[in-house]
Amino acid sequence: MEERYRVYITPSARKEVRKLPKRVKEAVLLAAQVLEKDPFAGERLVGSFHMLYSYHFSCEKSEYRIAYSLDHFHSLVIVHLIQGRENFYDKLKRLFH
Predict the structure, then answer these.
(1) Is residue 1 included in any domain, yes or no?
(2) Is 30 part of a structural domain of the chain?
(3) CA distance readout (Å), 10 to 15, 95, 97
(4) Are 56 and 67 in contact (CB under 8 A)?
(5) pTM of the shown model
(6) Residue 8 belongs to what H/E stretch?
(7) Is residue 23 within 8 Å of 91, Cβ to Cβ?
(8) Overall number of domains in the chain
């Protein structure tokens, strides 16, 4: 049987989730379930973010992104950022640079 990954949301990402509308939070939970089953569901980023994946989802006519990395040894999907598409890369740069 294939080992299932667990989703870990970092404290900084958790803080951002608290600011999201209720329906978006529900969509985040569904996205987390997808990533637990298939940690490669997102697309691999390139350049200075090559160690991250980006999972895209929509909610209430808005586009969102989840930036995450994988810890294969511990079977973890580590969520670093959950953000609307329009500010995603700016936030990611601030988080990792």
Answers:
(1) no
(2) yes
(3) 9, 12, 17
(4) no
(5) 0.92
(6) strand 6-9
(7) no
(8) 1
